[in-house]
Amino acid sequence: MNVAVKEPVYIIIPIHNRKQISLKCLENLNQCGDLQRYHVVVVDDGSTDGTTEAINCLYPDVIVLPGDGNLWWTGAIKKGMEYSYQQGAEYFIWLNDDTLSNKGAIQSLVSVCSLSPNKIVSGQCYATTELKMPTYGGQRKKGLSLNLLYAPQTEVIKCDCMSGNFVCLPRSIIEKIDFPPNEKFPHCLADIVYTWEAKKAGYQLEVLGCAIAVCEFNPLFEGWSSNPIPMKEHWKIINSPKSNLYPPAYWFYSQTFYGWMGIIIFIQGYFRLLLFTIARLILPLYFLKKLKICKNKIITNYKKKLNEQ
Length: 309
Fold this sequence. Notes:
Distance between the termini: 65 Å
CATH architecture of the largest domain: Alpha-Beta Complex
CATH topology of the largest domain: Spore Coat Polysaccharide Biosynthesis Protein SpsA, Chain A
Largest sheet: 9 strands, mixed
Shape: globular
CATH class of the largest domain: Alpha Beta
Order of helices and strands: EHHEHEHEEHEEEEEEHHEHHHH
Number of domains: 2
Oligomer: single chain
Number of strands: 12
């Protein structure tokens, strides 16, 4: 009996207590043929819901690396990359377990990444299978802000940094900038800082529009003006690495991207949270949502007029 030799591509999936979501991700890889073609490394950061046992039973070829519950996203990704690097991986695929890639999407990422030794490629994520609302992918630095980019299915666009939901990185990244900095960025912001540092080290970052995946926005990161989560919960979670405003990570991020101007960004983040808290106390949520829709329409029309000139 001939056993198919898998390509030296390692799909790294960090998980924690999301059994059904994690199993759905693996089932999607199985249906797409990626489970058979590539190595899959799941880093289970101390799940207590039987996730590892289920994976071992249903997908015995999947490598499961254990964590103690303190790895968070970055530590889990780092552990998966360290293992894959030791096994001879030529390419690493970052894949969040709530991200479902289309058939052939991973192959497309690897193919484009292989065109140059200094290329890092992200897929384009959408909120639903209707592919109408883009979510995660590339970002571009403009002034004192980062703007999400959208890569249409027929286009490849350059970017400055990337969300870590669905990304292909070459083995050489380890020699050039080392593994992701989990000490400074245990969970949030590590992906965009790591890919930003990669660009500064000479890597070309691209978003491949035809490499499609489905991944909804994390509700914690939706705009405060339209987010149904009470503002007091946003203030509570600041003390957790799960928050984009987790002070230690947010400070390092502000410095990394903006240098001495980072102090402005750092203060601005908490000031905006305070303003939105006051707004949510005064105005009903549905009204704030309407204001946001109106603002987006005005910005869209303004951009169209600029393009027509």
